[in-house]
Amino acid sequence: MSVSALSSTRFPGGIFGLLQVASLLGLLLLLFKAAQYYLQRQWLLKAFQQFPCPPSHWLLGHKIDRDQELQQILSWVEKFPSACPRWFWGSRAFFTVYDPEYMKVILGRSDPKANGAYRFLAPWLGYGLLLLNGQTWFQHRRMLTPAFHYDILKPYVEITAKSVTVMLDKWEKLIGQENPLEIFQHVSLMTLDSIMKCAFSDQGSIQLDRKSQSYIQAISDLNELFFCRVRNAFHQNDSIYSLSSNGRLSQHACKVAHEHTDQVIKLRKAELQNERELEKIKKKRHLDFLDILLFARMEDGSSLSDKDLRAEVDTFMFEGHDTTASGVSWIFYALAMHPEYQQRCREEVQSLLGDGASITWDHLDKIPYTTMCIKEALRLYPPVPAVVRELSKPVTFPDGRSLPKGIPVTLSFYALHHNPKVWPNPEVFDPSRFAPDSARHSHSFLPFSGGSRNCIGKQFAMNELKVAVALTLLRFELLPDSTRVPIPTPRLVLKSKNGIHLHLRKLH
User: Fold this and answer.
1) According to the lineage, what is the superkingdom (predicted)?
2) Percent of the chain having pLDDT more than 70?
3) Which one, 8, 49, 64, 211, has the greatest CB density within 10 A?
């Protein structure tokens, strides 16, 4: 028999053998994954044995309607003291904390951001302040802290006021239609305009530029996509996710976001080629955010890489506008729902500013009642509903219960702020909670997180909230739309499932 004939008679057997080997390898992989799943689940069950939680399915975890997530967690707050585990699926669970003493313990440590969740943000935000950990995070934080010195923040008040005025002028033209206005989109454009001018030296007209609207939409999509991916067991793998429709949408949204930030960096670099602009920079005692990044030198003398530069710009562009937009929008809604408090704030602002729209840094500390209302709205609607840490070493809480290293811990600021053991009648809007003589736990109110990793821009954000509220109350009465009550929904930033619709009545 010829060699070719022998080969052809053995070939089918060879294919069959390969299929057998492939089947065996597939079976072994399946068994390995099943064992891995079982061991991880058993480890988590043992870790959480001191912490009761609602019954969960061994495979599907706690089945919670995505639109009822906040309400569901609030129902647990009353049944399970301090904290409880939340199972996403059989081998994936987060330890959810909503007690101030527990918060104090975790925020007083140096645990890193939980990589299992936050790594999904890396294609969009890169490794800037939000995602960095350890010594590199410390270096970047120290480098950027001067950008929030009060000498830098002072002139930002006037810039922010101009951005707010542009938004209010637009509203004045729109309210003649008698229809309620969905304010979140407008407020987002205003806060983007403000951050672009303050931190990135932009001279354009963001609120009138359609490209800015595409950036706002991309950020909204990325918020939604991140939320969905964290909760989907099949989308944890990057390769599988990239093939899905959500993965493709995420890639497109990242591209839009990066084009926006790349343009900002490119324009500022071009401006700094001008000797006159360089001279102005040299005379400044404190540099703006982007200029700090462009002139930065690391400890080894090297400048920031283009990758690190864009990561910080992407991070602050998002955090500097989207969180503040959430804060402003929910404050407006809270004031619309409570006309008596709204009017008291208006009278306070009018007594300080008259009917003029001129507001300065010195005015911001002279509106105490308005500040109390802002803080109470931030309690009810914290712009960042939660953050996640991963325990780098075991922890023991004040009540004696403990957790091992490696557990992801969700710090639920929303649940903390609605915890009846911390805030009596938590659903009631009561600004007197923040009266100057009121006493509360140091970690009971955390709209900007806490500890060493608190929000670097919290003073900038508070200033912007005060300016937006003051100038808006001078021109409009805010009224709720009873047909569309906002439904708070947790994303990276607290959003409303159905938007935030208000009626606006021009004041004369």
Assistant:
1) Eukaryota
2) 96
3) 64
Q: Is 311 helix (H, G, I), strand (E, B) or coil?
A: helix
Phi, psi of 88 (to 5 degrees): -85, -45
Residue 412, phi then psi, degrees to nearest 5:
-90, 95
**Selected residue with higher pLDDT from 332 and 115:** 332
| Distance (Å, whole) CA 47 – CA 34 | 20
Secondary structure element (H or E) that encloses residue 105, with its range:
helix 100-107
pLDDT of residue 5: 47
Residue 338, classed as helix, strand or coil, is coil
- Helices in 354-396 by DSSP H: which ranges? 368-380
Asked if 464 and 472 touch (Cβ cutoff 8 Å), the reply is no
Q: Are 76 and 84 in contact (CB under 8 A)?
A: yes
H/E stretch holding 29 reads helix 3-47
- The answer to whether residues 416 and 98 touch, using CB atoms and an 8 Å cutoff, is yes
- Using DSSP's 3-state secondary structure scheme, residue 200 falls into helix
Beta-carbon count within 10 A of 45 CB: 12
What size, in residues, is the chain? Answer: 508
SS3 429: coil
The SS3 of residue 322 is helix
Quote the Cα angle for 170-477-321, to 5°.
50
CA distance 398 to 104: 10
pLDDT in tens, 333-379: 999 999 999 999 999 999 999 877 689 999 999 999 999 999 999 99
Contact 384, 505 (CB under 8 A): no
d(Cα 243, Cα 251) in Å, to the nearest integer?
A: 11
Tell me which DSSP letter residue 312 carries.
H
In the chain, what is the straight-line distance between the N-terminal and C-terminal CA atoms, in Å? 105
pLDDT digits (tens, 9 = 90+) for 447-476: 999 999 999 999 999 999 999 999 999 999
Q: Identify residue 204 by its one-letter amino acid code.
A: G
Which one-letter DSSP state was computed for residue 440?
A: -
Q: Is 133 helix (H, G, I), strand (E, B) or coil?
A: coil
- Reported as a pLDDT band with limits 50, 70 and 90, residue 300 is low
DSSP code, position 90: T
**DSSP assignment, residue 129?**
T
Six token digits for residue 476: 């409009």
**DSSP at 231:** T
CA dihedral 495, 112, 192, 195 (to 10 degrees): 140
CA quadruple 126, 451, 327, 100: dihedral, nearest 10: 130
Closest among 426, 453, 452, 428 to 440, alpha carbons compared: 426
